[in-house]
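Here is an idea for our session: we take a single protein and study its fold together. Once you have written the record down, we can walk along the chain together.
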Amino acid sequence: MVVGGIVLVTIAVVVALWWAGTAGLNGDKLVTARLDALRTGLGIGIGGGGALALYLSWRRQRAAEITLAQAATALTQKDRDHEHVEADARERRITDLYTKAVEQLGSDKAPVRLGGLYALERLAQDNPPQRQTIVNVLCAYLRMPYSLPGHRPADDAEETILRLYRERVEEREVRQAAQRILADHLRLGKGDIKSMTTFWPGITIDLTNAVLVDLVFSSVDVRAAKFSNAQFVGDSYFSDANFSYLADFNGAHFGGSALFARVCFEDFAGFLDVRFDGYASFAKAEFKNLAAFSNANFGSSAYFEQARFDGVTRFDAARFDGGVNFTDSWFGGTTRFDQVHFGRNIPDEVKMYLDAPE
């Protein structure tokens, strides 16, 4: 229709110019006028055809763009649907693995429980959003009641006694494996490429009331840690650790040596009512906010050489039965040593704080 219209307009212009524009002319002028009319009409026709061609080209381009856009939208939607399907499948797979691993922890067979621990470790390593949840599970396992195996019974003891002893020994191995898993992923070794890939940052642990055997948490870096009323069996190692928010050891019992050398407590360090049966070392430790040792009982030697107390420091009613060393320690905030019991000589570094007024 458009082409026909252009043709009709061209004919009409030619006719109009042919007759109206040549009226009264003759000879060469008539021929020239008619040629001009023909050229003008053809020019209009050609121009209209060119405009039509441009328009049709634009329409084709526009249609192609719309088609491509629709195809791209459909492809994007398909990709999104595929991603959702994959995400749902991945979540289901994670949930299944998690459920199976937790079920393994409830097994009465130690090897199965160990398998559950390592399955959870792999799951956390491969899925960072699940790490805190899995750490919570490991901590909950360690908080479960546990009785130490004690001395090995005689070989001719009753089978029930021997079996109970074996079960407790096996459970001790499982619990120590859980401790190692936590420590391995909370430790960031300086310049250690492997530890950079296995370190789980920003983790909070809750081991309240847990029984911890020969715990090695040296160089760990955690956001917050709760060890209140925990029982530490054997020697406990926290040297070079960093607690960025909370370190709660209130009411804990250290049956062996407790090593906190060079530990950095960035906020709250709670050692209220703690009992140290063995050697306790806080040499070069940093207490940047609150250090609370009120009612703490140091049954053996306690060392605080070059320790730095920047904030409020409380040793009220603490007992140092085995002697204490505060050589070159530094107190920068409010410090209290009220009613402290010193089994040996009172260190010169703390004499000025004894029963000092508020």
The chain has a mean pLDDT of 86.
